[in-house]
Design goal:
- The protein has about 140 residues and is an all-alpha fold.
- The protein contains 5 helices and no strands.
- It is elongated.
Length: about 140
């Protein structure tokens, strides 16, 4: 009976301890730690770092991705550690992080559409210039005849 009572107390103490730790951890995630970058700036950096990763993955022999990331950190007056700490903190807020990620994805898709539009315009202009060049060559050949 005494063993059972001690075991029950130990179990209750353990469960109470786990609940307390869970509550403490849960409560502490609601408060913002020092040196966390603002949410909008975090999204800006996240987008730019993704662009660097994408560029580096498509052209691995190009400029070093770490040096480009460092330029981004300097642009926003932060360092890698501050970004990583902010990222870790924002990751604890699952629903809000999903919204931040959606914002970043939307900005990347918008940027992709702008770039694609410029590419399409450049191709159309090149085709127009090529057709003018072909027309000019045809006129020159007719004049020679």
């Amino acid at each position: 009976m005494l063993k059972k009572s001690i075991l029950n107390r130990a179990t209750i103490f353990f469960v109470w301890g786990m609940i307390s730790v869970g509550m403490f951890t849960g409560c502490s995630s609601n408060s913002t730690p020092d040196n966390i970058i603002p949410e909008d700036q975090y999204i800006d950096v996240l987008v730019e770092l993704q662009l660097v990763r994408t560029h580096h993955n498509s052209m691995p022999d190009s400029v070093d991705a770490d040096s480009l990331a460092q330029i981004i950190y300097e642009k926003y007056e932060i360092d890698k550690e501050q970004f990583l700490n902010s990222h870790e903190f924002y990751q604890t807020q699952v629903q809000r992080q999903l919204m931040r990620t959606e914002k970043a994805i939307q900005r990347l898709e918008d940027e992709n559409q702008k770039i694609q539009s410029k590419i399409d315009s450049a191709r159309a202009e090149k085709a127009r210039m090529d057709s003018l060049q072909t027309d000019t060559t045809a006129i020159e050949i007719d004049e020679e005849l």
